[in-house]
Write a structure and sequence with these properties.
There is one protein chain. With 263 residues, this protein is α/β, with parallel strands linked by helices. The protein is 40% helix and 24% strand. The protein is built from eleven helices and ten strands. It is globular. The two termini are 25 Å apart.
Length: 263
């Protein structure tokens, strides 16, 4: 778990993002601490994907400031922007694998963009990343159409880890997975975070993930962060959406599920 006094590796201040007349993020502020798993939750259409995509530069902001590794993204030079990109990995919601490339080639893709390395070295590293996320050398030769949903997510995670990033962004990593696969993926994320010392920024609506994996949770509503902290802080929040989400029947059922028996 990230210590409370660890410095932020991402700092967002007074962020405003909108589309036409609709304001999605309204003077939102948030810090992401080094070494933590931060779960970001909100109602569908509430802005959590917009926030992630704005931080990584895919959506322009109207106002505010975003710093990553202490660098103001608005003032960053092209070299600084490229260096920040190399230190970050991203797993999009549906995996976003290239359908014409094998799993191995998908993992190699960021290496070809950022590294000057031999084909042999890139193959060895890509295979190691695939094995790290629980896939085999046989899986490496498969195309996305030949992979299950869980395998697709694992290949996408291996690609996100290809450049040994310090921050990994995960957008709904367990979406579309059955409960067993989702639980396995949660365990994998926690193991990798602890082993590699990653900072993980995770959009999720999965109550199991929020309970079992996240060090802190940021709840978005009305374009802002309305609750931030552990599960106790979520339960103490009086905002109607947060209260319903974390205090409803499904949340209570998840909170009281027995732990798996030791094997």
């Amino acid at each position: 778990m990230a210590a409370p006094d660890r410095e932020p590796v991402i700092r967002v201040r007074d962020l405003v993002v909108g589309f036409g007349d609709r304001v999605v993020l309204d003077h939102l502020s948030l810090d992401v601490r080094r070494g933590e798993i931060l779960g970001v939750v909100g109602a569908s259409g509430g802005g959590k994907s917009v926030l992630l995509r704005t931080i990584i530069g895919l959506i322009p902001k109207r106002q505010g400031k975003i710093e990553v590794f202490g660098i103001d993204l608005d003032a960053a030079t092209p070299d600084e922007t490229r260096a920040i990109g190399r230190r970050c990995g991203i797993l999009f919601q549906q995996g976003a694998l290239f359908s014409s490339l094998t799993a191995l080639q998908n993992v190699q893709y960021p290496m070809r963009e950022f590294l000057e390395a031999s084909e042999e070295l890139m193959t060895d590293v890509a295979l190691a990343k695939l094995e790290m996320v629980g896939l085999t050398r046989e899986d490496a030769e498969k195309f996305p159409s030949e992979l299950s949903g869980g395998m697709t997510k694992r290949v996408a995670l291996a690609r996100a880890l290809a450049l040994d990033p310090e921050i990994v962004f995960l957008d709904e990593p367990t979406s579309g997975l059955d409960p067993i696969s989702a639980e396995d993926f949660d365990s994998l994320i926690r193991t990798l975070q602890q082993t590699l010392g990653l900072t993980v920024y995770m959009n999720t609506h999965d109550l199991h993930t929020l309970n079992s994996v996240c060090d802190r949770i940021a709840a978005l509503a009305d374009g802002k962060v309305v609750a931030l902290g552990d599960m106790e802080a979520m339960h103490a929040c009086e905002h109607p959406w947060v209260h319903e989400y974390f205090g409803g029947k499904r949340a209570r059922a998840v909170a009281h599920e027995p732990e798996p028996a030791a094997t």
